[in-house]
Each structure stands twice: as structure tokens, then as C-alpha cells.
Design goal:
mainly alpha, MetI-like fold, two-stranded antiparallel sheet, 2 strands, globular
């Protein structure tokens, strides 16, 4: 159809053709592909957050919930020493776990990327093997490694032999940090490895040709260019660590309790959902601010290093 004939066609027909071409465009087809995933994420992620946010402004009245708007739960979450101290301890533990995990993961990722050769896939496969087992089983294994010998003691007592359990490294903050560091090690290795794989090796060769030694070329070329992987590893480890309540409960004891244990108690035995929701929202906001600050600090340090 010529342009003159198309101009002469009725207005509704032209609008129909316009809508048809819009539906057949790449943008419309792309949206049709992502829309199921978007709706799935909306239902499973956004809706629960909205529900928790709404509960945080209500009040628990014995077995019923008073839906009168109030900020009392946030006042308790931010001013009560027990919750404030638990939040600070959780943030400190998450920072320690993130630091030790990245420090241990970086050399492994560096070796696989630069010296793994054709066996890189095998190395990555071996790293993921421990994570085929249950998370709870790995935590219980660390409980035994760190000194828990209750099962052994019960067997010895049956033979008339008594032995006191050794808990020098168990039921404290150190036990929580060690266990969580191992639990999240693979999740730090993989993003760092991907970041190292993207580095152009000719840049390192150029630094060597210009007189840089291995250490200087690493500090000036490899490390700054791998910062995106380091940042990803820190965020992947730090954010979920704050919300872990299984590990502190099993290996932390009284000295290793974290804010997630208090939140779990409010939704469980205490049956105070509004306070638990307020603690959850407060923790989420504080962790978001801490993660943003960490990213800014690391990127600023990387720019200065260049």
C-alpha cells in the first residue's frame, strides 16, 4: 500500500495498524518474555515486604492485632538496649565474616583464574562439592570441629569414663564468624573469579614491560580491575549474614546471639508480629545503608589506588 493510500485509509484502521506494529515490536516481545518473571518476583518479594511493613505500624493485643497506626514498635526497636546491642553485634559479625571470606576467597579465585589452566572447571566443581550437603549438616559439623563432643562423652560415660566437653572455641562470637565464613566461601569465590577472568591479560603484560614487578602489577592493575567482583562478594556475604539465625543458635550460644534470633523469637514464642516486623524493617534499612557505604568506600579506595 502506498503512502497516499495509507493516508487516505480510515482513522480507526490506521490506529489498529499502529497498535499491531507496537505489539510486534522488539520492546513488546521483550516485555512479554519478562512479564511472568516480573509477576513472580512481585508476588514472592514485594508482597511479603509490604505485609511486613504494614504489620510494623500495628500493635499486638494479646491474640489479636490492633491496626491503629503507631510508631511504638520502631521506638522499641531503636531505643531498647537489648535490640540495639543485638543489631550492632550482627553488623559487626557480618563485617568480620565478609572481610575474612573475601580475604580467603581472593587467593583461591586468583589461583584458579591465572594458574588453573584447562582445569578451571574442575577446580570450581571441587569448590562447590561441600555445598551439596545440607546447610544444617555443615553447621553441625563445625560444632563438632570447634569442640562439641557430647555424643562422644555419652558413649564414654556408658563405659564408666567421664570427660568434660571442650568449648574453648564454641558458643561465642568467634564460632559464629568461623562457621559463617566457611558457609559463604563459595559465594565469594565465584564472583571474584568471574571478575578476574574478565581482566585483559595484555594489561598485566604491559605493566610488566614497563618495569612493574608481580606485586606492583597486582596492586596497580589486577586488584583495581577486580574490584567489581570483590564488591559483589562482600554484598553477597554481608547481607544474608545479618539475617542468619540458625548458625548463632547452634554454635553462638549466649555470646553469639544476633538480631535475627530476636526477630525469630518475636514471630515464634513471643507471638509479637508487629515488633518482629519493626525489627525486620529496621535491620533491612540499616543493612542497606551499610552496604551502600561499603560500596562507596571500596570504590573510592580503588580510584585512589589507580
Amino acid at each position: 500500500m502506498t503512502a497516499a493510500a495509507e493516508d487516505a485509509s480510515p482513522l480507526p484502521l490506521r490506529r489498529h495498524r499502529g497498535r499491531s506494529s507496537l505489539l510486534q515490536s522488539e520492546a513488546a516481545q521483550g516485555f512479554a518474555l519478562i512479564s511472568p518473571t516480573f509477576l513472580y518476583a512481585l508476588v514472592l518479594l514485594v508482597v511479603p515486604i509490604v505485609v511486613i511493613l504494614a504489620h510494623s505500624f500495628w500493635t499486638q493485643n494479646y491474640l489479636t492485632i490492633d491496626r491503629t497506626f503507631t510508631l511504638e514498635n520502631y521506638r522499641v526497636a531503636l531505643t531498647e538496649p537489648i535490640y540495639r546491642d543485638l543489631l550492632m553485634r550482627s553488623l559487626w559479625i557480618s563485617l568480620l565474616v565478609s572481610f575474612f571470606t573475601v580475604v580467603l576467597a581472593y587467593p583461591i579465585a586468583f589461583y584458579i583464574s591465572f594458574h588453573g589452566g584447562r582445569h578451571k572447571g574442575l577446580w570450581l566443581f571441587l569448590i562447590t562439592i561441600p555445598f551439596w550437603t545440607s546447610y544444617l549438616l555443615r553447621v553441625m559439623s563445625w560444632k563438632v570441629i570447634l569442640g562439641y563432643n557430647g555424643v562422644l562423652n555419652s558413649g564414654l560415660m556408658g563405659l564408666g569414663i567421664t570427660s568434660e566437653p571442650s568449648t574453648a572455641l564454641l558458643y561465642n562470637t568467634s564460632a559464629v564468624v568461623i562457621t559463617l565464613t566457611h558457609a559463604w566461601a563459595a559465594f565469594a569465590i565465584l564472583p571474584i573469579f568471574v571478575s578476574l577472568e574478565k581482566i585483559d591479560r595484555s594489561l598485566i603484560e604491559a605493566a610488566t614491560d614497563l618495569g612493574d614487578g608481580p606485586l606492583r602489577s597486582f596492586l596497580r592493575v589486577t586488584l583495581p580491575l577486580s574490584v567489581p567482583g570483590v564488591v559483589s562478594a562482600i554484598l553477597i556475604v554481608m547481607i544474608p549474614t545479618v539475617g542468619d539465625f540458625v548458625t548463632p543458635k547452634l554454635v553462638g550460644g549466649k555470646d553469639g546471639v544476633m538480631i535475627a534470633n530476636a526477630i525469630e523469637a518475636q514471630f515464634g514464642k513471643a507471638s509479637n508480629w508487629p515488633l518482629g516486623a519493626a525489627l525486620s524493617v529496621t535491620t533491612m534499612l540499616v543493612v542497606t545503608a551499610m552496604a551502600a557505604a561499603t560500596v562507596l568506600i571500596i570504590r573510592s579506595a580503588a580510584r585512589l589506588a589507580r
